[in-house]
Amino acid sequence: MTGLKHLLKKKEKVDEQKPLVVERSGNLDVPEFKCIRTTTESEEVIQPPSYPGDDDQDSQTKGSPRKEKKRPQLGFRRSTNNVSHTRNGSGDSLASQPTEKSEQQLPVRPKTERKLSERFHLHRDRPRSVSTASSSHLPDDLPEAPAATPAPAREGEKVVQEERDVKEHREAQWEKRATILAHSNPSLLEDHQEQRQEKTRSHSPSITDHAGDETIQEAIRLHELGDLTPSTAMFGRLASPSGPNNALAQVLYGLALRHGWGIPPEPENAIHYLALAASNSASVEEAALASGMKRGGAAKGELVLAVFELANCFRHGWGVKRDPIAARQYYETAANLGDTDAMEEAAWCLVEGFGGGKDKYKAAQYLRLAEQKGHKPVGNSWVWKEKYNPK
């Protein structure tokens, strides 16, 4: 143990001490230590250099020829690959020679050529800006996003009032974009054979059916009282394409299937109903826009809600393959149609670089809008810095 303490001293202190003498008993060799440093990528043999007096100790051994061997010395050497480094009588290094029993080692780059990030695994996958064409849930011909909803310039102030025609035109563009997204996922509507058969017999989408609305209110009341099973059953009957085909009930039934409200969770079936709600409400809104209405058709609320919940599915991979690009596009669409939850989620995507490049300026605009509508989470005071004021 005393010998190890000496070996572990710093080099400058070792040079000042007398050479370490290890007594040998009979023909026993001096104990040797082999130090190997390994990582998940490499294996490195640590061999220290020699010091004055080492060879003299070997020459004191009588009656036996000198053996070439490694010595337990302090220091670090670059890794060796299946070779043994020896020295001649004068202590000079000889060429590396293969050992009799070579141990298999991974090829190691010289330490001077390796970056710290490679040695300590500091590299991380950074979000990259990706085109929408790489998403299977977005149409290839999706037009450029319209102008975003304006945000207030300072905290507590209202947005500068736009001209009515400008505001209506912008909202109509975002609503049209929402209908394009809602109709761009036919595969989500054809996952189940029974539902495909129901779709062929489906009625026109029900949005303002008075009896249906009263039943939905009753289902919501039961849900809030904790009677989840009868509430979900009621949502399911109203959501059936061969029955009332109610878009709001389809959203609520999709959420019940996704989260297991009184029934076993069925995420694949849940996203089918959410996509069905988006498609049905989009059809109503398209008809309204075609008739000359500039904004806010009868199914706008259902469309926005369905788009937002589909964004959550794409973000988390609920019932569908995870798709950050689609999630971000859906969040931004719902945000520009007035959904405050979507504003916060779209801002998160922009800050973190989820589904595209980072853009804190744009994120600040969404968070300002959400705060103006009453959503003011703790820790968002940075959005009111002057550099994030609308340009």
UniProtKB/TrEMBL annotation:
Biased composition (Low complexity): 144-153
Composition skew (Basic residues), residue ranges: 1-11
Annotated GO biological process: negative regulation of G2/M transition of mitotic cell cycle
GO cellular component, as recorded: cell division site
Any one Pfam family match given in the protein's UniProt record, by short name: Sel1
InterPro entries, per the entry: Mitotic_Regulator, Sel1-like, TPR-like_helical_dom_sf
Tree of life domain: Eukaryota
PANTHER family in UniProt: ACTIVATOR OF C KINASE PROTEIN 1-RELATED (PTHR43628), CHITIN SYNTHASE REGULATORY FACTOR 2-RELATED (PTHR43628:SF1)
UniProt name for this protein: HCP-like protein
